[in-house]
Amino acid sequence: MNWSRAQFALTAIYHWLFVPLTLGLALIMGIMETYYYRTGDEFWKKTAQFWQRLFGINFAMGVATGIILEFEFGTNWSNYSWFVGDIFGAPLAIEGMLAFFMESTFVAVMFFGWNKVSRGFHLASTWLTGLGATISAWWILVANAWMQNPVGCEFNPDTMRNEMTSFWEVALSPMAVNKFTHTITSAWVLGAAFCVGVSCWYLLKKRHVEFARKSLKIGATVGLVSSLLTAMVGDKSAYLVAQHQPMKLAAMEALYEGGKGESLTAVALVNPFSQPDYMNQTQPPMKIAVPNALSFLATRDFNGYVPGIRNIINGYTKDDGTVEPSLKEKMVRGKQAIAALKAFRGGQKTEANIKTLKDNMKYFGYGYIKNADETVPHIGINFWAFRIMVGLGALFILVFAIILFIVYRKDITRPRLLQLAGVASFHWHILPANVVGW
């Protein structure tokens, strides 16, 4: 099991080096070629071809690693793939048949059709290549969102599989929509950061200055707009996590004991390498927080109730009056579901067994849990990863805004420190994109 996880994680991390950059560069190269189509200036044609070559290298690596990743669902997680294949496999199949073939078709026209098709058709091919990659991301993120919040499905004890009951509920769930918008806007930030970094490198070397200056303008503009959009949809992402994965939010905030009017932690002394004593500590030391902000983030009410780790383990009452069972009760109900299913599969297909299984199916997995520690994520990693992501996101907004101000008001070829910051911006973005999981 651990080796399967390690291999899958390594492949996913390596694959994710290329996916967001592919999505981001698709927008950059589309804008460049649109300038060429509208002006007829050969400068923009060469500029578009330059970014398309970089896109092509990245695209090929992303496809190669992505195919391996999909095969690993069958090799490493064959039982899981069989158990939820009716739901999980559908968006992945659509991604392969629709989106991947679409982008594969038009990428050939984009690379080899410059002197064979009209400028308009070639421009359409470039944008359709990017659109195909974006649609591909949509269906993959639908599958991912379903794992975070399973909807549109029902367990069938006769087939021992989760079966889809509503395709549109799976495809258009709020979690899927938010994951898609947050991921795509983040990918645009990465593409913009890459464009800015390459442009600033040329400016540092005093080579192709005009190309670098104009690419820098486009990259910084795309970066600033997409960074602001990412922050907006990121807020919705945190809200959905609070609604559907409260333990994840509690770990991200190192919130051991929750309550009403909870503060949003800016920084605290949380050890990133060891799990804190969350059952006995009241809160992490050296905590600096914004009053009532976490309650508003999680409930859209400054006085809303946010459960902490101990509350989730011991059980709590939500703002609407509904009671969330304790972990012990969930474990008991999970064992009841397991026993009912075992009896059902043994031939005792009674109404009582069916009702017990149906009433407790949502707690089925808890029946295999041995203690509370198995339900708590690593608090230190989640706490700091979230803050690194948010901090770097704010830094990108600042860097892109400063670059835009200088590039339009002054000579961008002179501020060497800013050029170095532009080169570094791409490396800064790799951290949240791959470690934090943008």
| Low-confidence runs | 430-438
Helix content: over 70%
- Order of adjacent strands in the largest pleated sheet: 1-2
General shape: globular
Give average pLDDT, whole number. 87
> What order do the helices and strands follow?
HHHHHEEHHHHEEEHEHEEHHHH
**Helix segment tally:** 15
Distance between the termini: 25 Å
Number of strands: 8
Radius of gyration: 25 Å
For the sheet with most strands, the description reads: 2 strands, antiparallel
Q: SS-based structural class?
A: mainly alpha
Percent range for β-strand residues? 5-15%
Brief characterization of the structure:
The chain contains 15 helices and 8 strands. With 438 residues, it is mainly alpha-helical.
